[in-house]
Give the backbone structure.
Amino acid sequence: MDSRHQRGGRTGVGMFAGFLTGFFWFFLSFAAMFNGVFFFLLLLPPAYALSGALLVWLFRLPPIHAAFSLVGSVLPWVAWLWPATISSSGWLKSLVWPALLVTAFGMSLLGAQLVAARRRRKTAQADPTPA
């Protein structure tokens, strides 16, 4: 396993950037849902995937760290919104918040893993082992 992500200050900066980016994307989705702009919600999964890919590419974070940093800021809000909306919207409609969280995590992990796999493939091709 590549341990370069454990050195330097880029890891902390990358985690913080992921935290802020996830915070931004979540509040855009929050605003879109409460203002009725549901088309914007279709743009958020690709945004999370792109954000996860950029965190791995720019800061060399492991894919799981990139995905957790993007949804880490969302967890307290979903823990509050989900039970709060059950009484007003019902069980089925309130499940949109956990579904948004799971979708954001999955898409950010997917984008991050695609970039990490490409990086591993490029380093394997560029650095052949002598026979």
Remarks:
- Residues 2-122 form one domain.
- The chain has a mean pLDDT of 90.
